[in-house]
Amino acid sequence: MTGNTFDAHRLVHLAQAVGRGDAVVERFYRAHFTEQRSLFDHDTLVDLAAEAGLDPVEARRVLKDDDYADAVAADEREARELGATGVPFFVIDERYGVSGAQSAELFGEVLARAWGDT
User: Fold this and answer.
1) Are 73 and 92 in contact (CB under 8 A)?
2) How far is the C-alpha of 82 from the C-alpha of 39, rounded, in Å?
């Protein structure tokens, strides 16, 4: 199941603004990867966000308007600047990008480099 997750990312920004970011991301991941639910339609997104503790009325309002579109666009620009061409893509210390599923050793090297650069 593929599609555009721009609106899901907008809801993640809403969730972060109210302290529910981790819960919403976790719910979206579980819905998509474990339950094979779509993250591409507004009704499902609102239901999932509400299950994670967001106000469904506020979530629907955000999806109806352009709220957080600039923030998601900025995230996309940052990802491109770090070399992201697909998912998964991990950003470490806002400076290092690791593309794809990589070995624990590679992550260890990147973490050590980031630690040494601070």
Assistant:
1) no
2) 25
Domain ranges of the chain: 6-64, 82-117
- Cis peptide bond upstream of 88, omega within 30: yes
What is the distance between the alpha carbons of residues 8 and 45, in angstroms, rounded to a whole number? 7
> What does the pLDDT look like over 51-79, one tens digit per residue?
999 999 999 999 999 999 999 999 999 88
Q: What is the pLDDT of residues 78-118, one digit of tens each?
A: 888 888 887 788 888 888 888 878 899 999 999 999 998 76
Distances (CA, A) of 71 to 10, 66, 81: 8, 10, 15
C-alpha–C-alpha distance, residues 32 and 26, integer Å = 10
Q: Which residue has the higher pLDDT, 94 or 19?
A: 19
| Tokens encoding 43 | 């009704």
Phi then psi for residue 87, to 5 deg, are -125, 150
